[in-house]
Amino acid sequence: MDSHSHRNEVNGENSHHIITVMEAAAGMSEGSQVIKIMEAKVNQPPKLLHKHAGNECCCIFRVPESLVRINKKAYQPHNISIGPYHHGKDHLKMMQEHKWRYLGSLLHRIQQRNIGLINLFRAIEKMEVKIRECYSETIEIDSHGLIEIMVLDGCFIVELFSIVGELSSTNLDDPIFNMQWILTFLMRDLLRLENKIPYFVLETLFKLSTLGLDHEKIPSLTELSLKFFNFMVQRPDPVIDNLSHLTGRHLLDLFRMSFLPPSSQETSTDGNNNSSEETSRNSTSSNQETSRDSTISTEETSRNGSSSTAKEISPFLQLIPSARKLHLAGIQFKPGRSHTFLDIKFSNGVLQIPLMTIDDFTSSVFLNCVAFEQCYSHISNHITTYATFMGCLINTPSDAGFLCDHKIIENYFGTDEEIARFFNNVGKDIAFDIEKSYLSKLFEDVNEYYRNDWHVRWAGFKHTYFDTPWSFMSALAALILLIFTMIQAFFAIYAYVLPTKNPK
After folding, report:
1. Which of 196, 201, 282, 416 could form a disulfide with 400 if both were Cys (CB 3.0 to 4.6 A apart)?
2. Cα within 13 Å of Cα(422), Cβ side
């Protein structure tokens, strides 16, 4: 009996040991599988934002979700897809059909000079690697599919610009030009950050489409592009002609660069998206001193060369108060005379701000330019700086109305409240370095003027007594009464001190 129970105990221990070993083996097997999965994920490159997205050649981005949440409609194409990000979406199929029509029109023109679709395809095919590097997101489209998108979308844009520039003709019944809403939405969609193809693709297709023609008589692609969008912003032709040397990374970048002040122009050379910033602090033009980039915090080497210290940051280098507060402190607002809304100046208590027209088109472009500057670190932040500046000036609807009254804002957008909401929203969730902004000197000067007690008191006196004709007349009457009272007091004292002597 005892031996039997002993054998049972031994068998139980052995079976328990076997189960434990099997469990351990199973655990090791599961652990090794997890490790293999982790190793596979480590070796898998990121797709939604690839590891080279910070490179200078990468210039077409998905808009950050933090910005999309504020105004989703501003970044999504409504009428046409350009490039791979929104290709094939159902609500964009109508214009997809017209792309093929415009490609046929372009081929009909160039086939007369022995250039065919095969030439366009092969020219773009050589650029496939370079094209893929321009997108921050891995493009899950095969080679032939991607080249087809580039050729089709690029030729559509080239033919569209050529028709507007009178290099090509179209049917008088063409709905793109006869139905006004289509062209309006096209212009907006062509300037959305996610809706892009590289500019060098457009240039290659444009050169092939004009091969064999007299190039001295043909406007550049930059001129055609800016004149196309000029239907919405309406700048004088000489201004557009002076910008013909610009080359952007894509259409949005080109349009943005065309508004930079002359002292801050950026260039992109050889079609490789290599840009060089000609910052305004290198400029010697004194009349644009207030538009210069100013890096307040810099390092200077000591005389013995062994150490460096940062310059002290000015206490006035801060965001400025609202427009009405500045006005009450004596700062005058006047419309500037520049062709670019970015050319803002401040001198002797006068803030000159060029007229900015706010409508559905400009607001959409404005938001996409800010998004581009937030994503692409190889350019200046002019539009972001302007958005921050206007956001400072416009805190309330009354501030928006004040700027409209002073011909600084031309409002086709809606009410003063909508203008205020727009500029308050455009500055949300964006990175802004005031020290490196092109208006850093202006921020500093305005704050210094605003905090001067003498300016505030003098402005308060003027607002109290000279703000309206009635207050001025009242002050003038009081002054005249005071003068007469002083004269009367003088003669009374004079008669008392030096009484008239009676004649003997």
Report:
1. 416
2. 24
